[in-house]
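Open question from group meeting: does this chain pack into something compact, or does most of it stay loose? Before anyone orders reagents, we agreed to write out a predicted structure and look at it together. Recording both the input and the output here so the notebook holds the full record.
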Amino acid sequence: MAVDAGSAKSELSVASDHVERYRERVVGLVPSLSGGRHDDAIAAIYEAERALRTATRALDRAVKLLR
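Structure tokens returned:
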């Protein structure tokens, strides 16, 4: 399936927005889990947050490269 650069740019931009929203949702769970019993889960959430932030940056970079 051939995709032109404009369509790819749009798709990547939308994907970046969605990944950023998921990152916000994921890290938003931390306050409700705070209290000592879920420290390992919180650490994993922060790890996932960093990965999602990296994914957003990579998608944004791809959009810029398609300009």
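Observations to bring back to the group:
The two ends are 21 Å apart (CA to CA).
The helical segments are 5-27, 30-33, 39-65.
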